[in-house]
Amino acid sequence: MSLLQIHEPGATPEPHASGGAVGIDLGTTNTVVAVAQGGAVDVIRNPDGHALIPSVVAYTADGPLVGEAARRMLLDDADLVVTSIKRLMGRGAKDVATMGGTAAYTMAPGDGMARIVVAGRTYSPVEISAEILRAAKARAEHALGRTVDRAVITVPAYFDDAARAATKDAAKLAGLDVLRLINEPTAAALAYGLDQGAEGLYAVYDLGGGTFDVSLLKLEKGVFRVIATGGDAALGGDDFDAALAQRFLAERAAIRGPETPTQAEVKLTMAGARLAKECLSWQERGTWCVEIGGAMTHHAVDQAAFEVVIADLVERTIGITADVLAEARIAIADVKGVVLVGGSTRVPLVRRRVQALFGREPLADINPDEVVAAGAALQAEALTVGGGTLLLDVTPLTLGIETMGGLVEAIVPRNAPIPLARAQEFTTYQDGQTAMAIHVVQGERETVDGCRSLARFELHGIPPMVAGAARIGVTFAVDADGLLTVAARERTTGVAADVTVRPSYGLEEGEIERLLRESMINARADMIKRLLIEARVEADRTLAALAGALKTDGDLVDAAERHAIEDGAETLRRAAAGTDRDAIALAVEELGRATAAFAERRMDRGIGAALTGQSVERLAAKLSG
Amino acid sequence: MAFCATCRAVQPLAAIDHFARLGLRPGFDLDDAVIERAYVDRQQDLHPDRFVTRRAQERRYSAEQSMALNEAFEVLRDPLSRAEYLLELAGHGVDRHGETIDDPELLAEALESREALADAGSPADVATLMAATARLADACRADLSARIAAPDWTGAARATRRLRYLAKLDDEARRRSLAFGAIRT
Amino acid sequence: MAGAVISISDAAAERVRELLASRDKPSVGIRVGVRTRGCSGLSYTLEFADARNQFDEIVEEKGVTVLIDPKAVMFLLGTEMDFVDEKLQTGFKFINPNEKGRCGCGESFRV
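YS: structure for the whole thing
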């Protein structure tokens, strides 16, 4: 309980006074943080006005870098860069082997949780996600001018228990207390519903970078009740990129024969395909290039060809959506509106197919990249300050246990409202048996092999009895975060059994505490270091860009101007070699002023030049965009 | 019940039946909207989201209350499980896991309709079958309602078994229809 | 002091004396009150007192003066004020026999 302090007269605080918590959309491609006050959402932006923090981590020699700075490193140091780590959350090493689009990772050997090797060190997806969350937290703290230690974090509705638990662990490592994990489509509906005062049945089609979710919700008097949900936790815009990259590589192979690209080249090809996808969302055609082993090939793609490449992937999402409707016994005519969420819904084919399925124009007036974070922020406010809205969500997948012969007995069906508890009775099959193991799986298949292993629960301390006499009541509880816990009690004696959990793909026992301890010791030093690294990266980028510009357009500056520019560059070089972040920032600014006129003249010259396809430089410009 | 009357603090779970949990009069004839309203109203007050900043004990009570509401809602919103639950409360519980049908009349009907489903060669055939099943289920629910109101528990148990079989038949027909791709666009 | 509205533990008295001594202006004691806030209906207020009010109930024990708001007396009869130094926090605690329930958060109570 909380204890009382003596206050100055009249200054006793109100009970439950609390600072605002933030909402974080921890996405496959981008992460967004937002805060709500009085029902109004503020998506937190950096000084340049960007809300998206690329979910990219670069492990430099000086420490980790997150976001835009890390994404830029894809060009030169792709080996140090990790992207789309969300796809590996809660996954086992074996799962990853069968996943698409993972050629860009070096997996660490081992059976349990998937871990990847970057720059010679092994990292768990939890640690990498924690870096991203730390960056989101830091951005919020900087913008709000106060400590932020509580958050609502969104996860794909179709995330299983292991992936949810991994997300919670990552938040803990990042120093965030998770008020609630909420499902991304539900968060989006919240943002839309509150915005538009909608009532009735709505479908949310959420196609992100790495995950696809579809949810059906009933909105009534401020209550958002999820009726059914479906999806694929390994299907997203990344797969569009991978499919297009495959096409590029196949075209190359047809001309040049077989090649073995390095991992960095694979990452760059994927980045090029991603750029092509984004361009083709608004332009009819373009040419992109792929460079492997120093040889460049050009690949022309138009919208129609791109749509052929991704057609099967899009159809899969449409099929899943139709199944969810059919299973919930909802006629399409009863759906009052369809909400599009996730950056991948910008792809025109996706929009057309969703529109065709529902026979109505989908709603997309809230920025699909920001709507989930906005919903999370609203929920964070509702949870801490209180509010009229309530989210009632469901289990995405059937929870079951392994029975004889590798079969699964369902304990909790999917689409059951949470939180929930189900009791199941077990008995012993040997005289004097004092322990038993329960293997919990999640999935829709009838065999253990077809489902995902969640955990093995071992019950100890069962009183010895003859076989079949013990009646062990096991309660499976799924909390409001969608996380499973198990409790057991022997019914005839009332003895509670000890339950030990061995998650199939979680961090090992004590690992989170160790990582937490390390991060606490290093937190402040890390932050200062990170800011310094970011400043240095910015300095290097500026200097490299300047060198390039002087080389191609050096004739545009006279001797005096060149002298001033070189002075500025030298000051920046010296500052970047030191450890004073402010000095670096100042030097960057000054160099910017010294080169402003030069930059303007270059632009004038550039406008005259014709656009001749997409080159690596344009890719560079886009990536550093 | 779930709250203290004076201070509004959430209370530990009381042992009450699902109808009482939702504040409904026990019975078969309940409107979907009424059940849903009762359920949502109570979740508004008891859901763990309302107790996030409270102490562990109160959070636990809220979770238990919310879980109990969900269970009550799941059981009562479907007429079939509602009937089964009413029978259970009346001491005439039917074994939900017993898959065998011992009513010869029902057995004959089941065999016949299953055969019809197996023979259905087109989405239209399945749709016809589903419509027929829906009509039978409506009639069965009306019968069940009358028997529970009487109360004729033996008759109600028989009608419940029939309704369960009809639900299963509808499920199978639906799956068949999905296999045809009839519901897909 | 038998029959006093509230009693004060040794630890609480010592801590109150320290706090009064370290406050940067003179105090006549501390003031205990009750207000109708919080999820269980009532919550305690605990403040430094700059002056006595006319109807204050006054308890003097162990060198500490406690002024009790007259409206609060009926809710506080028999309460012991204690000071605890726990691992995570230190502060005062009211052990109140009139409390029939306490909000899960411990910040408010009912009688």
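YS: worth flagging: Confidence is low (pLDDT under 50) at residues 608-625 of chain A.
IM: good catch. Also The domain at 525-610 of chain A is CATH 1.20.1270.10 (Substrate Binding Domain Of Dnak; Chain:A; Domain 2).
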